[in-house]
């Protein structure tokens, strides 16, 4: 069951601030949970560490995932998300500054739903976040829960 939460996985404080400002600027009312590295993101999703006690069935509506993260990079996080039945259908958007074609290809190979390069300009970045929110939180029809996983 999706909670409506946006999980932002980003270690750069400036990019976190820009994303949060973009959410506000785009009038997206969903709560944003920020995790600062790949391991913390998986802890949030699977209710471990600081997130023990969080309802494991309360998945975010979308994950905005950077590639270049400490402790575990975003591609490895995506691999874990896709290989676990509970999160295999979770919408994941790679939101990254990477211009590497191999990152683009590997993201899609691992099951990313979308790959968005972060614009440098704030207005463009705010517009991109607004469009992401509009599409993934309003227009897109989310997938049903995976078989065998009950809310």
How would you characterize the overall build of this protein?
With 151 residues, this protein is an alpha/beta fold. It has one domain: Rossmann fold (3-Layer(aba) Sandwich), CATH 3.40.50.2300. Helices cover 38% and strands 14% of the residues. The chain is built from 5 helices and 5 strands, in the order E-H-E-H-E-H-E-H-E-H. It has helices spanning 13-25, 38-45, 74-83, 101-109, 122-139; strands at 6-9, 32-35, 62-65, 92-96, 114-117. A 5-stranded parallel beta sheet has the order 2-1-3-4-5, with helices on both faces. Strand 4 (92-96), helix 4 (101-109) and strand 5 form a beta-alpha-beta unit. 28% of the residues are buried.
CATH superfamily: Response regulator
Structural class: alpha/beta
Uncertain spans: none
In this structure, how is the largest beta sheet organized? 5 strands, parallel
Mean pLDDT, all residues: 89
Estimated helix fraction: 25-40%
User: Kindly, what is the distance between the CA atoms of the first and last residues, rounded to a whole number of angstroms?
Assistant: 6 Å
CATH topology: Rossmann fold
H-E order: EHEHEHEHEH
Total beta strands: 5
Across the major sheet, the strand order is 2-1-3-4-5
Entry keywords:
alpha/beta; 151 residues; Rossmann fold
Task: Give a topology summary.
Elements: E1 6-9, H1 13-25, E2 32-35, H2 38-45, E3 62-65, H3 74-83, E4 92-96, H4 101-109, E5 114-117, H5 122-139
Parallel strand pairs: 1-2, 1-3, 3-4, 4-5
């Amino acid at each position: 069951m999706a909670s409506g939460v946006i999980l932002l996985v980003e270690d750069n404080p400036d990019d976190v601030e820009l994303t949060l400002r973009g959410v506000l600027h785009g009038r997206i009312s969903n709560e944003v949970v920020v995790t600062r590295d790949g391991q913390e993101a998986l802890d949030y999703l699977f209710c471990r560490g600081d997130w023990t006690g969080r309802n494991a069935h309360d998945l975010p509506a979308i994950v905005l995932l950077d590639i270049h993260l400490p402790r575990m990079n975003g591609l490895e996080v995506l691999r874990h998300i896709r290989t676990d039945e509970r999160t295999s259908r979770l919408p994941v958007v790679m939101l990254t500054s990477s211009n590497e074609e191999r990152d683009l290809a590997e993201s899609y190979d691992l099951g990313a739903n979308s790959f968005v390069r972060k614009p440098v300009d704030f207005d463009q970045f705010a517009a991109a976040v607004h469009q992401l929110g509009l599409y993934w939180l309003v227009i897109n029809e989310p997938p049903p829960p995976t078989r065998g996983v009950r809310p």
